[in-house]
């Protein structure tokens, strides 16, 4: 069963944030392994997927040095702007800097995807 907050509400939240000019351009980079034999594979290729969102700093009490490091950044992505389902195998580009995706979590409304990103 899905949440009663999903669907139309997600679109309304995304629209309201866009009107307020909160989101910025972000890019999810998907690595596609090269073909060929295992002992001599072709180089990987990369697919860029544009989306909208914004970075946030973690609060001091959230940073434990292990699960969340001081250099980690929380990136909030508007899910209606995604054309893929990102995974921890992907990377996210924020302000021109590429970060590994460490963790992903959707909010209750389904409007936002919270990404823990690490440089």
Shape: globular
- The run of helices and strands is HEEEEEE
Q: How many DSSP H or I helices?
A: 1
How would you characterize the largest beta sheet?
Answer: 6 strands, antiparallel, barrel
Rg from alpha-carbon coordinates: 16 Å
Average pLDDT: 88
Strand content: 35-45%
SS elements, strand count: 6
Give the helix level as a range of percent.
Answer: 10-25%
Strands ordered across the widest β-sheet: 1-2-3-6-5-4
Q: What is the CA–CA distance across the termini? A: 36 Å
Low-confidence stretches: 1-5
By secondary-structure content and strand pairing, the structural class works out as mainly beta
Write up what this structure looks like.
The chain has one helix and six strands, in the order αββββββ. It is mostly beta strands and 119 residues long. It has a six-stranded antiparallel barrel. It is globular, with a radius of gyration of 16 Å.
Features:
six-stranded antiparallel barrel; 6 strands
Summarize the structure.
The chain has one helix and six strands. The protein is mostly beta strands.
List the helices and strands and how they pair.
Blueprint: H1 8-19, E1 24-32, E2 45-56, E3 73-78, E4 91-94, E5 97-106, E6 112-118
Antiparallel strand pairs: 1-2, 1-4, 2-3, 3-6, 4-5, 5-6
